[in-house]
Amino acid sequence: MPEIPDHLDMGLSILFIGFNPSLRSGETGHHYANPRNHFYRILYRAGLTPRLYEASEDRDLLKMGYGFTNIVARPTRGIDDIDRSEYAEGREILRAKLRKYRPKVACFVGKGVYTEYSQKSKVDWGFQPDPVIPEIHEFVAPSSSGLVRMPMEEIVGIYRRLAEYIAEHGE
């Protein structure tokens, strides 16, 4: 299955970074396209978007300063289908993308994504105190997968902290 294209640009306010695309995203060519994924609902409810977007509109979020990429580009059924070498390669590719595009905030959609990227074993939700690339704010948010057992209001609350930061800093 082909990789889905990143949505990247210089000076993004937020670059959302996932584990890897779902099979549904691979089929459609759009980020967070699985109907059980709550990503776009979370962004809307947290105040990051003015309306509820559909996965087919993912590229439109570039106009708002939001981009998309993954630590592993290959679509899979789940993260259990990704091997260690893919994470190691993806980590280096992701770091190169961050250095090149320099988003103001790198938002890792899931603690596991961030731990794979940073090689840190323990992280908390929100902004990280010691970013891998010092000039880029690193924010860890819950996964938007429908498999996550955290209450939706708690997930939205964490993303709302990101929206408040963006609003406060005019980014």
TrEMBL record:
SUPFAM superfamilies in alphabetical order: Uracil-DNA glycosylase-like (SSF52141)
Domain Uracil-DNA glycosylase-like: 6-151
Pfam families associated with the record: UDG
Keyword annotations of the record: DNA damage, DNA repair, Hydrolase
InterPro entries xrefs: MUG/TDG (IPR015637), Uracil-DNA_glycosylase-like (IPR005122), Uracil-DNA_glycosylase-like_sf (IPR036895)
PANTHER family found in the cross-reference section: G/T AND G/U MISMATCH-SPECIFIC DNA GLYCOSYLASE, G_T MISMATCH-SPECIFIC THYMINE DNA GLYCOSYLASE
Protein name: Uracil-DNA glycosylase-like domain-containing protein
Native source organism of the sequence: Paenibacillus cookii
